[in-house]
TrEMBL record:
This is DNA nucleotidylexotransferase. Its EC number is 2.7.7.31. Coiled coil: none annotated. Mg(2+) binds at D336, D338, D426. It catalyses: DNA(n) + a 2'-deoxyribonucleoside 5'-triphosphate = DNA(n+1) + diphosphate. Template-independent DNA polymerase which catalyzes the random addition of deoxynucleoside 5'-triphosphate to the 3'-end of a DNA initiator. One of the in vivo functions of this enzyme is the addition of nucleotides at the junction (N region) of rearranged Ig heavy chain and T-cell receptor gene segments during the maturation of B- and T-cells. One of its GO terms (cellular component) is nucleus. Pfam families: BRCT (PF00533), DNA_pol_B_palm (PF14792), DNA_pol_B_thumb (PF14791), DNA_pol_lambd_f (PF10391), HHH_8 (PF14716).
Amino acid sequence: MLRAPAVLGVRKRPRPAEAGGAGRQEVKFGDVRLYLVERKMGLSRRSFLTRLARSKGFIVDEALSDTVTHVVSEDREASSLWTWLRQRALKDLPGMHVLDISWFTDSMREGRPVAVETRHLIQDTLPTPPGCSTPPPAPASSISQYACQRRTTTENRNRIFTDALEVLAESCEFNEMEGRCLAFRRAASVLKSLPAAVQRLEATRGLPCLGEHTRAVIEEILQCGHSFEVRKILSDERYQTLKLFTSVFGVGPKTAEKWYRRGLRSFSDVLAEPGVRLNRMQQSGFLHYGDISRAVSKAEARALGNIIDEAVRAITPDAQLALTGGFRRGKEFGHDVDFIVTTPEQGREETILPQIIQRMKKQGILLYSDYQASTFDVSKLPSHRFEAMDHFAKCFLILRLEGNQVDAGLNNAEGDSRSWRAVRVDLVAPPMDRYAFALLGWTGSRQFERDLRRFARMERQMLLDNHALYHKTKKEFLAATTEKDIFAHLGLEYMEPWQRNA
Ligand code: CTP
Ligand code: MN
Ligand code: MN
């Protein structure tokens, strides 16, 4: 059994705003910010409930702002409440829970924020436009704000919008505006899940995660076929340069920015600059740039699967190899091919990757290898930050793939007569009892993973990462041998890998 680490006892200090009045109270649920609607409730009951919630470690905001996560109202009349809420000029209203007082009383009784259930929700009822007898289109409120509750296949019917939003997200990322970046990515992800193309702005009404800015972009595209803001970004020198530099394997936004500030604008600028020292990864990135910036096809992924499977079998016949990442989600093309390998014998998985690498080297197909030994330690708390790397043994490779091993032939450039190409491959080797978590974590998509973790935290008081699932209030780890076990622990309907293209 895994032990709860001591760090869990650490509690956040209340922010000054919550500490006024009757002395300081400990904040236990930093992720949840309540706002109690005074209408119907009345001022004195509102003050009483506010004190009650604070005494139990909840944050209660006096003012309704975009940082509020749970709006609680005693006014069950949805239309007037929603009209009032819409007039508050909130950007994040679609992401907030608008709840009946029953959620509040349940939470006070339990001494923690209980999971939001449908019976708690005060749902927005869209008014029927005058003169229109048919009811409004499918209730957008039935679409969850969490990607892990939306089935998203590779068939994106709103690519024209999502491509634009992803440019905006990336531009925010280059400018270190993480909040805005995430908002655009969330909006794009919601649009990807829709069963049909958005043809009128009204069709987006009530959709979660679509802010003012996103709506304006959608409207512009609907009217003009493109967004001027996106066009401006695409022709911006800084954006173009950072996009170019970060397309090199081993070059992240930080390095790209550094090169840009030195006045470098092209690969030849970088390579000719005496002050720039490339690490081994970046050197390989430049060396194989043409090949690895070209998409990998499904047939190529299959061929690599065969090569790696053969290596694994030769080393440990009872090892288990599985395709993961985008190809497991059913994508036709990827930027790399991801595999997960594990062994029934605990501890054996730590030596298998170096052996696979050694074998490929002997076969003459290893063009680059970055092996990272396991730093996995069961006493480590599941991380709050998705971006944090996991601790399993893993390697980032560039392999030489021969054309005669690929059924459909290589996805090489027109006029390229070589009989081979370079391909990026990732391998991760978790211990068998962590396999389900690692598989779920490496299958992606990134947005799906982010929302799984956010859902676990916000709705279930659980922490999820590539290693484990931890129940914060019960202070225990929940075991899983399959992905289905993890969805079940989270109280989520199971999603097939091909439905996780959020
Ligand atoms: N991942 C991770 N830790 C890493 C790298 C990746 O957990 N150090 C996970 C991410 O959840 C990601 C998945 O592995 O979703 C696959 O990563 P990546 O290959 O970058 O993305 P894909 O979804 O496979 O997309 P592509 O087809 O472009 O490769
Ligand atoms: Mn991948
Ligand atoms: Mn990868």
